[in-house]
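Pilot study result, target chain (170 residues):
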Amino acid sequence: MKSNINHLFAIAIALAATSFSCSDNDNRKNEPANDWDHTRTNVNDAANEARDDAHDAAANARENANEANAEWQREREEMRAEIDRRIEENDRDIANLRADARNRKKEVRKDYEDKVNELEKKNHDLRTRYNENKSETREGWDNFKKEFNHDMDELGHSIKDLFRDNKTNK
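Predicted structure:
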């Protein structure tokens, strides 16, 4: 009987040893076999994260560029409307000056009409310059806008000056 107990005890120990070694192998399957596998896994994870970050940054940059382009297009359309309004206003003022030329004395009428013609040509040239503008960069657009607005303001002052002279020299 003692030998049966010893046999049973030996079998129990063998089973326990086999069970522990199998469960230990199962745990090892879930872990990298060595440090190199672990390092490779970390590097791959970091590379994937960096790729995802770069992808997100590129998507954000495209979105920001699209928003900036839309803003630039809105600004151009607003300026176009403002320029059209100002040029039409100049056309009306020039037409009024031309009509007033008929009321001028003959000796000053020719000089006055020449000034009106010059203002009309400048107004036409500004319209043409704006319509032919092909600024494709923000910097080019900003430079054009600055110069154009300056020239448009200068023309507006010249028209007002001629109106003022018209009132005092009739």
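One observation from the pilot: Residues 35-101 form the longest helix (67 residues). A full batch analysis is planned for the follow-on phase.
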